[in-house]
Design a protein that fits this description.
Heat Shock Protein 90, 6-stranded mixed β-sheet, alpha+beta, disordered N terminus, 3 helices
Length: 185
């Protein structure tokens, strides 16, 4: 959360926030200049998780998503989408974000209420704006397509809003997905 009490830059009085900490979770402070503001109509559940830049740590992220699912009563298709997006983005950070073998922290914040999910990812890897990568040419036959880019295509398609910024030698990804809750029509 930032100094206003919001994960993505909104005002605390717009949302009754309930923070649930998953195992090994740590606080994440996203920059106050983050451009997201969420008007929450119901209680927002926020989970924060810090992993190392090791592929085995992704299991803990999936566990955190499961905790969010239970705490927020998320639809199964939303949980699947969140896991696909996080696997893609975090795998890219782990595999391509660092030029050394040292341990680095990657901070993930997941927030949800009964109509939307917000995801924040912060890392200190090499500057990389995934939104600057061109969309893959899906009209080409599979054998003629260049390798790479399809995972980021899925991220763009699965989320309603994807933003990136580089600040103080850190990459920040902000993602949002709206949905209809299980109880609403």
């Amino acid at each position: 959360m930032n100094h206003t009490g919001s994960v993505f830059g909104g005002k605390q009085n717009h949302c009754v926030a309930r923070t649930v900490h998953a195992a090994h979770a740590t606080a994440v402070s996203f920059p106050a200049s983050a451009s997201w503001c969420s008007l929450c109509l119901s209680a927002m559940v926020t989970l924060q998780k810090t992993i190392r830049n090791r592929i085995g740590d992704l299991v803990g992220v999936r566990d955190t998503v499961s905790t969010l699912e239970r705490a927020s009563n998320l639809p199964a298709e939303m949980v699947f989408d969140i896991n696909v997006v996080l696997d893609e983005l975090l795998s890219n950070i782990i595999h391509y974000g660092y030029s050394d073998d040292a341990l680095h922290e990657i901070r993930i914040t997941l927030s949800a209420n009964d109509t939307m999910v917000e995801i924040g990812i912060e890392d200190d890897g090499k500057a990389f704006d995934p939104l600057a990568t061109p969309e893959p040419d899906l009209s080409l036959p599979l054998a003629e397509r260049p390798i790479g880019g399809l995972g980021l295509h899925f991220v763009r398609r699965l989320m309603d809003d994807v933003q990136y910024k580089r600040e103080n030698n850190h990459n920040y990804m902000f993602l949002k997905k709206n949905f209809k809750s299980k109880g609403r029509r």
